[in-house]
Amino acid sequence: MTDQQYTHVSESVASAILEREEIHPTYLYSNSDNSFTAIFDNVPAPTMRQQISVSDPTITVLEPMPLDNRQPNVEVNIAATVRFAFTEYPQVDMAD
After folding, report:
1. DSSP annotation of 57
2. CA pair distance 52, 38, nearest whole angstrom
3. What span, in angstroms and rounded, lies between the C-alpha atoms of 69 and 25?
4. Per-residue model confidence as pLDDT tens digits over 30-78
5. What span, in angstroms and rounded, lies between the C-alpha atoms of 60 and 30?
6. What pTM did the predictor assign?
7. Dihedral (C-alpha) 18, 41, 27, 90: value to the nearest 10 degrees?
8. Is the dihedral of CA 23, 56, 49, 25 positive or negative?
9. Can you say whether residue 95 is alpha, beta or left, with left for phi > 0 and alpha for psi between -120 and 50 degrees?
C-alpha cells in the first residue's frame, strides 16, 4: 500500500456518488488513508471497477488493477471488492 493520503470524503458523500450512478455496494467503508472499500455480492470485480472508475472524475480506483490478458468474468459468484479514493473533493448535491 502507498503512503499517499487521499482527499477526505465522508461515507455519506461517497455513497451518494455511487448511488447517483446506480452503484449499490453491499458494504461500503472508509479506510485510514481516506480510501474506501466497496464490497459487492455476485458481481465480477472488473465490472464494478469499470463502473466506479467512470462514476465521478475525482475517483481513482486503487484495487483491483485492470485485467490484461485474463478472462474478466470467470468467478461471478464471489464477492467483488473494489478499493477507491478521491483525488479531490467531489461536487455532489446532498439535498436530494
Report:
1. T
2. 10
3. 27
4. 999 999 999 998 788 888 999 999 999 999 999 887 655 555 555 545 6
5. 14
6. 0.81
7. -20
8. negative
9. alpha
Half-sphere CA count of 29, side-chain side, radius 13 A? 5
* Peptide bond just before 57 cis, omega within 30 deg: no
Q: Which three cell numbers stand for residue 12?
A: 455519506
Residue 2 in grid coordinates: 502507498
Written as one letter, the residue type at 87 is T
Q: Do 83 and 63 form a contact (C-beta atoms < 8 A)?
A: yes
**In whole angstroms, how far apart are CA 18 and each of 8, 12, 59, 74, 75?**
16, 10, 11, 25, 23
Return d(Cα 86, Cα 88) in angstroms, integer. Answer: 5
